[in-house]
Structure formats: C-alpha cells, structure tokens
Specification:
Blueprint lengths: L3 H13 L3 H53 L1 H4 L2 E3 L5 E5 L10 E7 L3 E6 L14 E7 L5 E5 L6 H10 L5 E7 L2 E10 L5 E5 L4 H4 L11 E5 L4 E5 L2 E5 L3 E6 L2 E5 L8 E5 L6 H22 L16 H11 L20 E3 L5 E3 L1 H10 L1 H8 L10 H13 L5 H67 L1
Antiparallel strand pairs: 1-15, 2-14, 3-11, 3-15, 4-8, 4-10, 5-6, 5-9, 7-8, 11-12, 13-14, 16-17
Helix pairs in contact: 1-2, 1-11, 2-6, 2-10, 2-11, 7-10, 7-11, 8-9
Length: 470
C-alpha cells in the first residue's frame, strides 16, 4: 500500500521536480537509525545475559543432579547378594548402609494367607441368590464387621461385593467353572490375619457361607494363615509377610520358598568404583562448570572482547560459593574433614587441582574415613557427603531472593523496558514523518505557486519585448 507521504510527494513533485517522499524518508531514517541501534544493541546484550545466566544455572543443576545420581549407584556403595535367590533374594533399601553382613539365612516357613471356599453349586451363576440376613466377619482380634445381604444384593456377586466393601482386610471373588459357581475369600498373609465368617441373622441359605473355624459341608478352609519363619545366624524370627525389611538394616529380603535345613549366604559386593575415581570425575566436571563461568564473566578491553556477564554480581557470587567447597567442613569426626585435606586445591582462575599422590596416600592410610566423608551412608548437616555439599551450594546460589534470582529479574525488567522504548521510538518517528510530510507539502504548494507566477512573468516580459521590437 502506498504511504501518505509518498503519495503526496509524488503528486506534488510534478510541480517542483523534488521527490519529497524520499526526502522525508531519509530525514526520518537519519533521526531514527542511531537511536534504534542503541536500543537494539542493548536488547541483544540483555538477551545474551539472560541466556548466559540461565545456562549457568542449568549447568549447576546438571552437575549437582549427576553427582547425586552417580553416588546413588551401586558402583560406590556395593550391592547385597544371595547365593540362592530361588530361596531368598535381597536388594538394597534407600537411605542407609547395609550392616551385619555376611549372614546365614534359613527359610523354615513362608507366610501364607487363609483362604476359604464354598462348595461349588452346579448350574449356579454369579447372579444366583445366596440368601438373606447378616453374616459377621472378624479378622484376627479386630472388631466384628456385619455383612448384610438384602433383596438388593442377594447374589454371589452381591455377597462378594459386600465383603470387599467392608474393607476389613479380606478379598472375596466369585468363580464359575465346570464344577459350578462358588465364593472364595482370601485374607492377608500372617497368622494374625486369620478370620471367621459367622452367621448372625442369616437364613438357612446364607448360613451355608458361614465358617467359624470348623469346615462344613458347604464351606471349607483351603489354606491357613501363618507367619514366615526364618533363622538369621541361628536366631529365629517371625514375620507376617514374605518381604522382610527390618531383619538386616537397609536391606530387603524376599522369601521365595521354604527350605528347612538349607542355609543361604547373604553377602555384599565391594564397590566397583573407588573414591579416587570419584574425585577425578568430580574435579573434571567442576572445572568444566567453572571454565564456562570464567568465559562468560571475562573482562576485556571493550564490549567486543569481554564476556556477556563481565562484572555481573550474580556470577561473582556463584564463583565465590563454588570456591568455598574445598574448605567447607564435610565431617565433624574422622581423619579427614575437608576436600583440601585429601589433595584438592584451587587454582588462580577458580578451577580445581587434584593432587592424586596426596589422595592416594590418604586412601591408603584410612579408606573408611575417606568413604565416610565423601559418601556417607546417611547424609546429614554435619556430614553431607560430596553430593550433599554440592546440593547445599546449589540451594544457596539459587535461593529465591539471592543474587542470581535478582540478576535474572533485573534483566527481565530491562528487556521489557527496552521493548517499550522501541515501541515509543516507533510512535515518535511516525509522528515526525507526519510532521515533515505536512511541512514539505506546504513548501511544495508554495513552490508550485511561485513557479506559476514565474511562468506568467516570463510570458509577459516576452510579450513586452516582442511589442517593442516591432
């Protein structure tokens, strides 16, 4: 679409011969371009700073998360082993170190659940009636639970649902096969979870589903509720489940079959990765992070040679927090308490240096103390371990009102301000173009009038000259 200024300039140019549209455009550009460049240059720098801070924070997260994941693996903690998983399998529980191994386990008896079943009724279906009235369900030493059957739920399905809806710890199902239809009721494993289903006010049909501890012609016990029985290093222990989490600290034992007279050896594999490997990986990853921060905050002779975050207080604080890790206390007891004591020092540029000879000497002298300091079984404030120490640094750097959050908020606000400045400049230049167009339109009108007058005078003078010659 042709602009107003161009249209006016084109039409008026017929009279004056001056391209006022181009003149106005050039004048506006001469005013706009320097101001616009200042704003867009600041926008580019601000965007680069926002991106660099986001990248630094993301790199910090990646480093800390990777360290946590690394130390959580069995490579640094070892893994529990069973020499016969078909009898008992073992696994590591989170939050602590396995103690008490090796141990000898003997599975005398598996835990089981009580199961009752009614006599199959040939020709019956799940919707067949079962009788009316109330049965009483009692699990262990718990309270009596009424199971009511009315005309609304008088069926095998209704009876099973009433038992399940009682939430007493037993599960009822209806089975229909070639023998007919029957009700099966199963409790939870463990001797304490035995149950009875006695007749309270049921009619003769419903009473057939009652069981008070003695089998009848219509209701029988198919399995008995019993505890698992194990011997651990000769000491008998009983549990209501076949999954045992408390016999050995921080280790789960899954009992798979009873094997009286057979001992299962429970042991723990040694860590496949050493604390020396850990420190080498840590220093390398730390230095990658620090070099990135150094590049982003490098000072230069001018903006073209300095980093986008040169002089930024958030980066200075991040580097300061990281640099304190070598001297931070990681334990209150033991032979070693800081990274600097096992060969980690700081270079002038903030990167770390690992004295492997000093580290090897420390590991040889007291490997347990090194492990306890770097990767404790349970991390706590006074003994955070390497992952906990890194998490603490990250939390302080990324705290809600910290320097990083403040810098990010500052740059975000500046970005909004620069956008508003650019929009304001667009409005100002549009107004300026309108003003110039008006001025040059008036000028063009005057020039056209003057040109017409000039033409008239030239014609008159020519006529006068012609008259005098004759």
């Amino acid at each position: 679409m042709t602009s107003v200024g161009s249209s006016i300039g084109s039409s008026l140019g017929i009279g004056s011969g001056i391209d006022t549209g181009a003149l106005v455009s050039n004048l506006v550009s001469a005013v706009r371009d320097p101001k616009q460049k200042v704003i867009t240059d600041r926008q580019s720098l601000n965007s680069a700073r926002i991106s660099a801070l986001g990248s630094a924070s993301s790199s910090l997260d990646t480093f800390a998360d990777a360290l946590n994941s690394l130390l959580a693996g069995t490579g640094y903690s070892g893994t529990p082993l069973s020499n016969d998983p078909s009898i008992a399998s073992v696994s590591l529980l989170p939050g602590g170190e396995i103690t008490g191994l090796p141990a000898q386990l003997r599975v005398q008896q598996l835990a089981s659940a009580q199961t009752l079943a009614s006599t199959p009724v040939s020709g019956a279906t799940a919707s067949s009636t079962v009788g009316l009235g109330t049965l009483t369900l009692k699990v262990g030493t718990g309270a009596d639970v009424p199971i009511e059957i009315t005309s609304a739920n008088n069926s095998y399905t209704g009876l099973a649902k009433a038992i399940n809806d009682a939430n007493a710890g037993v599960t009822a199902t209806v089975i229909t096969d070639n023998q007919g239809t029957r009700l099966v009721i199963k409790g939870a494993t463990g001797e304490a979870n035995n149950f009875t289903l006695t007749n309270a006010t049921g009619d003769a049909d419903l009473a057939k589903f009652a069981w008070d501890g003695t089998d009848s012609g219509t209701m029988k016990k198919l399995a008995t509720a019993q505890d698992s029985i194990i011997q651990l290093d000769g000491v008998e222990q009983r549990y209501s489940s076949n999954t045992i989490d408390t016999a050995i600290p921080n280790m789960r034992i899954d009992l798979n079959k009873a094997a009286p007279g057979t001992d299962v050896s429970l042991t723990k594999s040694e860590p496949t990765t050493s604390m020396r490997d850990l420190m080498v990986e840590f220093v390398n990853a730390y230095n990658t992070l620090m070099k990135g921060l150094n590049t982003a905050s490098a000072a230069g002779a001018d903006s073209s040679t300095s980093g986008v975050l040169a002089g930024d207080p958030a980066v200075r604080d991040m580097k300061r927090q990281l640099s304190q890790m070598t001297s931070a206390g990681m334990a209150t007891t033991g032979a070693y308490k800081t990274l600097s004591e096992i060969g980690v020092s700081t270079n002038r540029d903030g990167t770390l240096k690992l004295d492997t000879a000093l580290l090897d000497k420390a590991i040889a002298a007291n490997p347990t103390a090194i492990t306890q300091m770097l990767n404790p079984a349970v991390s706590k404030a006074t003994n955070p371990g390497l992952a906990g120490l890194m998490d603490g640094v990250r939390d302080r750097i990324q705290v809600k009102d910290g320097s990083l959050a403040s810098a990010q908020a500052k740059y975000a606000k500046l970005g909004e301000s620069l956008t508003e400045q650019l929009e304001k400049l667009d409005t100002q230049m549009a107004n300026y173009q309108t003003q110039l167009t008006a001025v040059y339109s008036k000028m063009e009108s005057r020039l056209t009038a003057m040109k017409a007058t000039q033409s008239y005078l030239e014609q008159q003078i020519a006529a006068w000259n012609s008259s005098s010659d004759s």
